[in-house]
Every structure is written in C-alpha cells, then in structure tokens.
Design brief:
The complex is a heterodimer of chains A (374) and B (401). With 374 residues, chain A is an alpha/beta fold. Chain A is 21% helix and 30% strand. Chain B is built from 9 helices and 29 strands. In chain B, strands 1, 4, 5, 8, 10, 11, 12, 13 and 14 form a 9-stranded mixed β-sheet that branches. In chain B, strands 17, 19, 21, 23, 25, 26, 28 and 29 form an 8-stranded parallel β-sheet that branches. Chain B has a 6-stranded parallel β-sheet with strand order 16-18-20-22-24-27, with no helix packed on it. The chains are: A alpha/beta (374), B alpha/beta (401).
C-alpha cells in the first residue's frame, strides 16, 4: 500500500438519506448496516485507505450519532493519525457554517478543512455505492488528461421506475463526458455515474467559491448538468462489482448479492480488505438441530433453527424450530422458537416472539424497525 | 514519571510448550489458537482487562515472533495505555551480562525494575496456557482481607486428578500448611491453578534471596513457595469456582475446544459482561453454501463451508469444500479441506491443505484392535497432506506428506 499524500478523500455520509427512509430514520446513509458486519461508510473509508489516501474528511448532516459511534477516532481504518487521518465535519462545525443542501454548500461549510490540507487533489464520494475501488489509477489519469473533473462511472442498467438519483453520462470517443442526465425517463443500459469525482483542490475551490456567490448548492445540478461553463469532465470507468443502494429493495438485493461467491470475492479482496469497527463477538454457535444453506453469517450469532438465503448480522439469535428464509436480519435481532420468516428486513435489536409468522415479498421486503417487539 | 499502580500482572509466556509438539514448533504456547478466534493468551489478557488490571508484563522467550506480533500495542485488550498497558518483556543484556530466563522466578527477578517503575502493592503472576474466566480483583481483595503474603488460586478437583497436579494442604482458615507436587497419595483435592497474588515487597525479597542462593531451578513451585512456607509466611488458598482448563497437552487442547460445544456450555463466550477479546483479521462474515451440512459447531469469520461439519471448531478463513467432512475436530485459521477429505478426531494446524480424499484421524469406536492405541490425530502448521494420504490416530505430523 503506497501512500498518496497528495490526495485528500472526502466522504459525504448523508447524501441520499431519503432514498432508504426506513433505514435512515434513526441514522444516516453512512451508518446503514450492510453485509453482516459492515456499515456503508466502511466501503469509502477502506477504499481511500487501500488507495493510500490517509487524509480523510467525513461530511455529515443529520442523525450522525451512530456514525460518530462507528468511526470513532478512525483507528479501525488506520486513520487515527498525527499526519492526516480522519476528520468529522458536521454542519455548524466552523464559524459561519450552517445546514447545507447540496454537496457544494457542504464543501463551502467545510472549506477551511479542505484548504488546510496539504493535498493538491481531492477525491469525493458518497456512501450509497458499495464497491471495492482503487482510486490511484483514477487520480493518475485525471492528472495526465488535464481534465477539470474526472467522474467515475460504471456500465449499468437504469430503470426510471425504480432507480432514484441516477446520473447518466454520455461519453464521446475522446473519453470525455458530452452529455449528462439526471433521472431521465428511460430504461436500459447506460453509463451510470457512481458519484465519485477526482478534482484538483484549486478547481474545487473555484467551483465552491463561485457557486456560493450565486447560491448554487448542488454539485450535480449546478456543475455537472450545467454545461454552460464547459468544464472538461473525463469519464473513468470502474469495471469492478458494485451495487447502488437507492431503495429498500436495492438494499435488500445488494445484501443478498453477497451470497454469490464471485461478487463476494470482488468486494472483499484479500489485497484490499474492507475494514470496520470490531465488536469482539465470539464465533457463531450452530446448535444440534441447526440447518443452514446459502447464507452469510457474522460472528456472535447463535443459531438453533433453519436458515436459508439470508444475511445474518452480528449477535443474531434464531431459536429452535424457526425457519428464516430470504431475509436480512441485522445486529442483535432475536428470533424466538418455531417462527416462520421470509423476505423480511429487521433493523437492529428487533425481538420476535415464539411462533410468529412474518412474510414480505422479494420486490417489497417487509421492514421491521429498530427495537420493535413482535 | 509513572503513576503508582496498586496491582501489576506478570504473565509467564516464555514456555516452549513441548507437550503440544507440532503446534508449538514455531510459536510460543500462549500463541496457540483456541476456540475459533482466540489464542490462549487472550484469556489471561482479557481477564486482566475485565478485572481492572491495566498494567501487564508479558515475559517471552521461546519463538516470540507470532506472539509479539499478536500482542502488538495491546489495543484489542484495551491495554494500549498512556500509563501502564501491556509490555512484552524478552530477556535482555544488562551491564552484568546477558542471560536467558532460567526459571519462572528468575524471569520475574530479571524484571524487578519493570515492576518497580509502577511501585505496586501486589503482583499477580499468571500463566499463558489456561482457559478460564476469572476476576483477579476478587482474588486481590481476598489476599488483602487475609493479610496474606501469597495467595494461590486453587480448584477443588476430583481425587483421581489430584495426583497429576500441585496440591495445597490447608487449615480450616484456608491457610496453606503444606504443598505437594503431583503426590501419589494426595492429602487434599485443592489443586493450584498457577495463579498467584504476591505482596510485592515479600516477593521481591524472596526473588533476590532465591537468585543469590542459585538453586538451579529458580522456580515458583520448587523454590519460592517452599521457602515462604518454611519461613512461616502467610500463604492462603483462594478457591475458584468455575471452568478452568490446563491446555498444556494436545489431548487437553482438543478437550477444551470440545467443551465449547457441550450443551451445558461450561465456558460462556457470549457473555457481554466478560468478553474475551482477540486481535482481529478483518475478514468478511462466514459463508455457508448450498451443499453444507452443519450441526453442533463453532465457526467464525472468513470461513467458507460447502461440506459437512459436525461437533467441530472451525477458525477464521478456513475452507471446507463440497463433499468434505469434518467431525469432532479443530481446524485452525486459513486451512483448506479439499473435496472428499475426512477430518475426524483431529487437530489441524494453521494454513494447512488437506488434499482430496485424504483422511485424518479415526473415531475411537472404529479404531481398535491389537497394538492399536487410540488418540486424536494432529498436524502442525503450514502442512500439506497430499490427496488420498492418511494420518492415523495418535500420529503427530510435523512435515508435509
């Protein structure tokens, strides 16, 4: 892992919170649980660290208590550093800063942090794309190309009925973006923006200051979509596996995607691990009558029933005779005996009594809120 | 300038662990994996933290690389302290010359200056090869209440086991009147657990006297405790009730792992009030495949299971391929069990490869007959067992076959 001291990483931890309202009611996008033992912010933080970026700012908005608790000093990502390291940037954290609306005014609020960084380049990302990406080649092509902005995209499929907050790029033969659309009324294969950008700090300063002077707040609307300024936007293709969390159904499917070995191996690479807060749970204990198929199971679970096609987070209990299928069961959920559960998402600390039957559908999973007792 | 600490713990981690053979070939005994995601040293270190003891010296000598790397700055056990914390203490060269640790007492003697920096009232001396959860603070309280010079933790064991252990003979106030190492005819069933609380001033005096007497053994059991007894010092036994297991042998290591799967759960690792901490590898959750059959098992992060696992402890990053069977066994981190292989009544070390159709161990029911003595089969670390090869019960494999 080489160091990339010339690059600052900025994570927007609260962008698109509204897309998965159920899960962000009590938290923010970055602290949404994912994949058995992770929170969404683990992916951008680990990607930065694995790309040698050790100066990181996390820009938050609301409900960031759980996020603060999760990232702490940044030690788990090796970001508790004297030089650089992790900095949390909530609204109102600097004199004159206030609640922001878009990424541009969020950057305006946090500008003194960005300005004081020694970095010449900045990588920006949200938390709603789950992927394992090395930013080093993106920064290299950005510098070599002389682009104002390098936008990371992936070949993807867009359906205007289900996808929310999608940025679609038209890309010319020279590799530069020649068209930008937001949530277009179309369906099909496209170049889907991953909301990750590389810019020089000088360019970012310019657009942030200019936008603030004109009360323009949105990076997407006022910089990408507004083609009048003629910014040179280079498209950088990310070919690795990714999933976009833009609805409860996509959250559900992105978790179940991890049951596929190829996708799991693409996301959890030995050479570029995904770091997270450790919880010191004991290994999973499988009881005498347990029966497990095709499931991802985090430590601390005690399973005495039947589990198929599920992702179980840390500390889940499943009682004797219960059957849990096609479900995402998050941290410390306790399911009693002889229950039948299918197509369900439980948030943290849900308690389900004996003999309960809960069923959602694959397209519309049943969501059970944090701490519910059923 | 260090702030005074009432209690400092000294953990004896230098032992070679020769009775664990292949597993301690290139790592110190306290670094041996246990219970799915732990190493033996996690138990005393976690007990220290949970007991409020935040200053721990770990005395290392034999093959310390894995152990040193594992302990690191002590952060996983909350022992990365501004003042105190965990300190790895290898033998060193002083102006009077360099010397290895010659015995348990000598190891502490050589680190008197480390202990003195904290000016402690009491020193807790611990071993690194026992599995148990114990509140040392309660034992220190007892030591104070009894105005003891030395308190020895004891376990009331069945008489049949007493002759294999160090036995304390006590009066009705629990004052130790005599002490016997592995007696043929035990006069008591109170066995020493190798956990001592000393009043530091007394211990220091005896360590210096023992060093000057140059007995040759320089050992707590052989020298320090007998001389304290002879001199009429106040020695008390502190009875511990709960699970405690010496895992100094391959059989007892296997047994202790199997205890984790016992329905009565003699050792609860899920107790949030007394967590056992360990250093973590950042592996994703385990994946259990379509063809897997799992019953009565403990399995941890990073493992991928497509085969059959019954009554076994599977460590992190282990792969059990389709058609492979693991039963009544312990499979240590990073090992791959290939298609059609069988591992039963066995311990398989770290980063091994068990080839297709290979067979390690046999059940005691199946393996009997003339000249056949059954015991578990063991392979060391980083060993490849080629396809179709067999490792018999009681066999201890240290090289690839």
């Amino acid at each position: 892992m080489g160091t990339n001291q010339n690059v600052l990483g900025l994570v927007f931890a609260s962008i698109h919170d509204e897309a998965i309202y159920d899960l962000t009611k009590l938290r923010t996008m970055g602290s949404v649980p994912f994949g058995g033992r992770y929170r969404l912010i683990d992916f951008p933080l680990s990607n930065f660290v694995n790309s040698g970026i050790s100066q990181v700012g996390v820009i938050t908005k609301r409900n960031y208590g759980s996020l603060l608790d999760h990232v702490g000093s940044g030690r788990e990502w090796d970001l508790a550093r004297k030089k650089g390291g992790l900095h949390l940037l909530p609204p109102y954290s600097h004199t004159g800063s206030s609640m922001y609306h878009g990424r541009l005014d969020a950057l305006g609020n946090a500008w003194s942090f960005v300005e004081h960084s020694s970095a010449e380049y900045v990588v920006l990302t949200n938390c709603d794309i789950v992927t394992n990406i090395d930013y080093r080649p993106a920064v290299e092509v950005h510098i070599a190309s002389g682009a104002d902005i390098t936008a990371v995209y992936a070949k993807g499929y867009y359906d205007h009925l289900t996808g929310a907050a999608a940025t679609i790029f038209g890309i010319g033969g020279d590799g530069f973006v020649n068209d930008v659309m937001i949530d277009p009324p179309m369906t099909g294969s496209c170049n889907l923006g991953l909301d990750m950008f590389v810019m020089s700090k000088d360019f970012l300063r310019r657009i942030v200051k200019e936008s603030m002077s004109r009360n323009r707040t949105s990076l997407r609307k006022h910089i990408l979509l507004d083609r009048s300024a003629n910014y040179k936007i280079l498209a950088y293709e990310h070919t690795g596996y990714y999933s976009k969390i833009d609805s409860l159904a996509s959250f559900f499917n992105a978790n179940l995607d991890l049951l596929d070995a190829a996708k799991r191996d693409a996301l959890f690479r030995k050479a570029a691990p995904i770091f997270t807060k450790t919880k010191d749970n004991a290994p999973v204990r499988f009881g005498l009558e347990s029966h497990i198929k095709n499931s991802l199971i985090a430590d601390g679970c005690i399973i005495e029933g039947k589990v198929e096609n599920c992702v179980l987070f840390r500390g889940v209990r499943i009682g004797k005779g219960s059957v849990v299928r096609d479900s995402i069961i998050t941290q410390d959920t306790v399911i009693g005996a002889r229950c039948s559960i299918r197509n369900v998402i439980t948030d943290k600390n849900v308690q389900i009594a004996d003999e309960r039957q809960l069923t959602g559908s694959a397209g519309y999973p049943l969501f059970i809120g944090k701490g519910a007792e059923i | 300038m260090y702030i005074k600490k009432e209690v400092v713990a000294m953990l004896l981690a230098g032992g070679q662990g020769s009775r664990l053979y292949a597993l301690t070939h290139d790592m110190a005994k306290p670094a041996v994996p246990f219970g799915g995601k732990y190493r033996l040293i996690d138990f005393p270190l976690s007990n220290c933290t949970n007991s409020g003891i935040d200053t721990v010296g770990v005395l290392t000598q034999y093959q310390p690389l894995v152990l040193n790397d594992y302990i690191g700055n002590g952060q996983p056990w909350d022992l990365d302290k501004m003042n105190g914390g965990v300190h790895v203490l290898p033998p060193y060269e002083s102006n009077s010359g360099a010397s290895w640790y010659e015995g348990t007492a000598n190891a502490i003697y050589q680190n008197i200056s480390f202990i003195e920096r904290y000016d402690p009232e009491y020193v807790v001396v611990l071993g690194g090869d026992h599995i148990y959860k114990m509140d040392y603070a309660k034992m220190v309280d007892y030591h104070k209440k009894m105005k003891a010079d030395l308190t020895i933790a004891v376990l009331d064991v069945p008489r049949s086991e007493a002759s294999r252990m160090g036995i304390m003979i006590c009066d009705d106030q629990m004052r130790v009147t005599d002490f016997e190492e592995k007696p043929k005819e035990p006069r008591s069933t109170l066995a020493s657990m190798g956990i001592y609380v000393f009043t530091w001033a007394k211990l220091k005096k005896y360590l210096i006297e023992n060093e000057n007497a140059n007995t040759g053994s320089k050992d707590f059991g052989k020298d320090i405790i007998p001389s304290m007894l002879n001199n009429g010092e106040r020695l008390f036994a502190y009875t511990f009730e709960g699970y405690w297991k010496d895992v100094g042998t391959l059989d007892s290591l296997w047994d202790a792992n199997m205890d984790l799967l016992a329905p009565s759960q003699p050792l609860d690792l899920y107790d949030k009030e007394w967590r056992i901490y360990s250093r973590h590898n950042n592996l994703p959750p385990q994946y259990i495949g379509e063809t897997a059959e799992i019953e009565n098992a403990m399995i941890t992060e990073g493992s991928v299971i497509h085969g059959k696992v019954d009554t076994s402890v599977i460590f992190g990053g282990v792969t059990v391929e389709e058609g492979a069977t693991v039963r009544y066994s312990i499979v240590m981190p990073g090992t791959v069990i290939k298609k059609g292989a069988t591992v039963e009544y066995a311990i398989v070390g770290e980063d091994c490869v068990v080839g297709e159709g290979a067979h390690i161990g046999r059940s005691p029911e199946e393996y009997h007959g003339e000249g056949k003595e059954w015991s578990i089969a063991v392979t060391g670390h980083n060993i490849t067992i080629s396809a179709g090869k067999e490792v018999l019960p009681k066999q201890i494999l240290s090289e690839s076959i």
